[in-house]
Amino acid sequence: MPKLAGQKLKLLFLQKLLFEQTDEEHWVSMEQILAYLEENGIKAERKSIYTDMQALRDFGLDIMQHKGKTGGYYLASRPFETAELKLLVDAIQSSRFITHRKSRELIHKLEGLTSQPQASTLQRQVYVTGRTKTLNESIYYNIDTLHQAISAGMQVTFRYFEWRIEFSTHRHIVKQYRHGGQPYQISPWALLWDDENYYLIGFDRQSGLVKHYRVDKMTEITVTNLPREGQALFEGFDLAAYARRTFGMFRGREQKVSLRCENRFAGVLHDRFGDDISLFPCDDAHFCARVNVSVSPQFFAWVFGLGGAVQVTAPETVVKEFQNYLKKFLI
Predict the structure, then answer these.
(1) How confident is the model over 46-88, as pLDDT tens digits?
(2) Rg, Å, the chain Cα set
(3) Do residues 101 and 118 both lie within one domain?
(4) How far apart are CA 117 and CA 136, in angstroms?
(5) Residues 168 and 231 grouped into a single domain
């Protein structure tokens, strides 16, 4: 009997068909399989399909068969379940630092990890109050470059900017480089994700301090051939505690602060400080807490935003600073 055309490609096309068009709710019949192969220039006999399906099972594919007149074959499991892909899609859509265009690209790639019928369910829209997408796509390449530097243990140089008001320009808000536009030279040790932003955590040799920089405000990042420094400071360094202390990543002096809180705000304190707090009752309606914070405008803004349900009670110096902070809101 003459050898049928396309036999070397048949297994690959069968795998493609199962992966793209089948799942536990959608299967392909023998007639559909034969028609699909013929559309792709491959002649096949029914008997050979049984052998091919078993070969794919032996290779590791979880191929199941739905019995009955309307039955067929389907791929029962994949590296990602549909529910897991939906979680990833939601995370991408709600992430501020991923642009709309990059979000669409990533979601399209995730769709390729499931069947076409299931892929349509991934086109969801997650709305997050007050969160806007960044327009800066260079952040992805910044992150990749910084990861390379951290892995290689090398210092990096970069320029760092901030946004300033400039009414003489068309946009009014313009980019202005710090350091007089001169590059920073930092030993990178970690990347930290906090409050919808990526930050580089590194050692600044000039000041001898651990510092942090928003990755989306970094440009012209270059990995140098200089070994990074500051290892002693980063041995046992607790990134989570560092993020809690600095809140919005603005440096302030670290200090123990006493708070008086309404009982219903216990969860708020726990979300902010985790288990690293000392709690004790004040009265029937309030509890008191001692927390380690960076005393800064960001800390005061957090307390102020809770509408009086959390009050700063000690030390007196911090109480005075908070009072002065609040006076700035009065005309």
Answers:
(1) 999 999 999 999 999 999 999 888 889 999 999 999 889 988 9
(2) 29
(3) yes
(4) 33
(5) yes
Listed residue (122, 121, 118, 120) closest to 107, CA to CA: 122
Task: Note the pLDDT of residue 242.
Answer: 79
Q: Tell me: do 231 and 276 sit in the same domain.
A: no
Residue whose C-alpha is closest to residue 97's, from 132, 142, 141, 146: 132
Dihedral sign, Cα of residue 248, residue 252, residue 253, residue 257: negative
Evaluate whether residue 287 is within a structural domain: yes
Q: Which two tokens stand for residue 124?
A: 């969801």
Q: Omega before 281 cis (within 30°)?
A: no
* Residues 169 and 188 both lie in one domain: yes
pLDDT in tens, 249-261: 456 678 899 999 9
Residue 303 covered by a domain: yes
Query: Would you say residue 275 lies in a domain?
Result: yes
Question: Is the residue at 129 inside a domain?
Answer: no
Q: Of the candidates 91, 122, 153, which is a domain's last residue?
A: 122
Beta carbons of 219 and 189 less than 8 angstroms apart = no
Number of domains observed in the structure of the chain: 4
Of the candidates 248, 247, 237, 244, the one whose C-alpha atom is nearest the C-alpha of residue 209 is: 237
Query: Nearest to residue 138, comparing CAs of 104, 177, 98?
Result: 98
Q: Which domain holds residue 272?
A: 246-327
d(CA 198, CA 101): 19
pTM higher than 0.70 for the full model? Answer: no
Does the pLDDT of residue 269 top 60, yes or no? yes
Coil, helix or strand at residue 99: coil
- pLDDT tens string 93-113: 878 778 888 888 999 999 999
Tokens linked to 205: 């040799």
